[in-house]
């Protein structure tokens, strides 16, 4: 019985994934940060693996009342995929929500022509 338990433990240890270089920390090669009294800010960094991140933001009135203040931000990040392709995402976060763009991100298909015409007709009739 002890032999079976020993064999089971050896089998589990052998099946465990080996530690790869992915466990090593990635060096930050540049980093900048700024925070201002008016609530605006910016930061960026780049790591040794080519990852880049940049963001800036400021305070903005996002509603009808003066106290409707929110932070609006914009930025980008890029990284290299395992097959060597650099992917970049640009984004904005404001009163309209989070909007990201990038050549690799899916986009909706174009609106069918009959729907475009119907919406134009509704707008012209004052129904939209």
Could you walk me through the main structural features you see in this protein, from its secondary elements to its overall organization?
The protein is α+β, with helices and mostly antiparallel strands and 128 residues long. Helix content is 20%, strand content 40%. It has one domain. The chain has helices at residues 2-15, 113-124; strands at 28-35, 41-47, 52-61, 69-80, 86-94, 97-101. Strands 1-2-3-4-5-6 form a six-stranded antiparallel sheet, with no helix packed on it. A hairpin with a 5-residue loop joins strand 4 (69-80) and strand 5 (86-94). The protein is flat, with a radius of gyration of 26 Å. The relative contact order is 0.09. Residues 1-6 have low confidence and may be disordered. Keywords: Cuticle, Signal. InterPro entries: Cuticle_Struct_Prot, Insect_cuticle. One of its GO terms (molecular function) is structural constituent of chitin-based larval cuticle. This is Endocuticle structural glycoprotein SgAbd-2.
List the helices and strands and how they pair.
Blueprint: H1 2-15, E1 28-35, E2 41-47, E3 52-61, E4 69-80, E5 86-94, E6 97-101, H2 113-124
Antiparallel strand pairs: 1-2, 2-3, 3-4, 4-5, 5-6
Q: What percent of the residues sit in helical stretches (DSSP H or I)?
A: 10-25%
Gap between N and C termini, in Å? 78 Å
Total count of strands: 6
> Are there runs of 5+ residues with pLDDT below 50, and where?
1-6
| Structural class by SSE content | alpha+beta
Order of helices and strands: HEEEEEEH
Average pLDDT, to the nearest integer? 86
What fraction of the residues are assigned to beta strands by DSSP? 35-45%
Put simply, the count of helices is 2
The gyration radius over C-alpha positions equals 26 Å
In spatial order, strands of the major sheet run: 1-2-3-4-5-6
Assign an overall shape: flat
Number of domains: 1
Major β-sheet profile: 6 strands, antiparallel
| Oligomer class | single chain
């Amino acid at each position: 019985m002890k032999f079976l338990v020993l064999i089971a433990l050896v089998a589990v240890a052998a099946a465990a994934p080996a530690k790869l270089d992915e466990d090593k920390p990635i060096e930050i090669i540049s980093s900048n940060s700024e925070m201002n009294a008016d609530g605006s800010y910016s930061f960026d960094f780049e790591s040794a693996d080519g990852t880049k991140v940049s963001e800036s933001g400021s305070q903005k009135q996002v509603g009808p009342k003066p106290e409707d203040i929110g932070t609006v931000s914009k930025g980008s990040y890029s990284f290299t995929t395992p097959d060597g392709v650099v992917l970049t995402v640009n984004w904005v976060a404001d009163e309209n929500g989070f909007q990201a763009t990038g050549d690799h991100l899916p986009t909706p298909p174009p609106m069918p022509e009959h729907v475009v015409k119907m919406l134009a007709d509704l707008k012209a009739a004052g129904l939209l």
